[in-house]
Amino acid sequence: MQALQERIQKRHGGTVQKTWYLKTMLTLVTSAEQDETEASIMKTLDDIRYLGIRQSEGLFDESLTRIALSHVQQRSNDSSNTTGSVTQLSDKIAAMYDMLLPYYLRAYMCYALPYAVGASDETLLETLAQMVTSDTKSLCETGGHHLIISYFMSSDTAFTNQGFARLRSIFLDDEAPEKLLRSHQTKIVSSLAMRLADDDYDRRSLLTR
């Protein structure tokens, strides 16, 4: 009986701990996205790193990638602060994944590219291309599956429309989104199948309870 009780406590205790961890991480990442000062974001990143970003199981990678990329842009636009806290902030996020910044952006291109293309500031895509030593058109061609999946799955209509409009402008072709869909069809179907089978999508509902 005691052994059974211990197993039950261990099982349900782990569930409670996981729920607490996910909700705490959500609060911290949301705070980091909303913070306007670099010092506040840096402090939040320290808290996230303390909890262990590798335990997040991919739930918060997209948010952290957006933060890193937006501050890479600030660094590139501010020549007087190339070694200041903005540089440290972007690099710090990459270091949380044990990567240098360019490798981090490449590893999480599935988040970085759609965000850069759909951003209201068109220079963000150019900044990303420079960081990974590419050009905007080539980056969109090779990462077309990331773009189509992100925009089709997004609940933000304005973001999706902006992304598709930017693609038409980049390729000088009104059918650019449709052509990317056709040329990356196999990757898109495979990625969607893997994404829908991912337990992380089920855990998202847990965070809002």
Summarize the structure in words.
With 209 residues, the protein is an all-alpha fold. It has one domain (9-207). It contains 13 helices and no strands. The protein starts with a helix and ends with a helix.
Number of helices: 13
Mean pLDDT: 81
- Element string (H = helix, E = strand): HHHHHHHHHHHHH
The major beta sheet can be summarized as:
none
Write the layout of secondary structure elements.
Layout: H1 2-34, H2 38-51, H3 61-77, H4 85-96, H5 101-107, H6 109-118, H7 123-131, H8 136-142, H9 144-153, H10 157-171, H11 176-183, H12 185-196, H13 199-207
Helix pairs in contact: 1-2, 1-3, 2-4, 3-4, 3-6, 3-7, 4-5, 6-7, 6-9, 6-10, 9-10, 9-12
Notable features of this structure?
209 residues; mainly alpha; 13 helices; globular; disordered N terminus
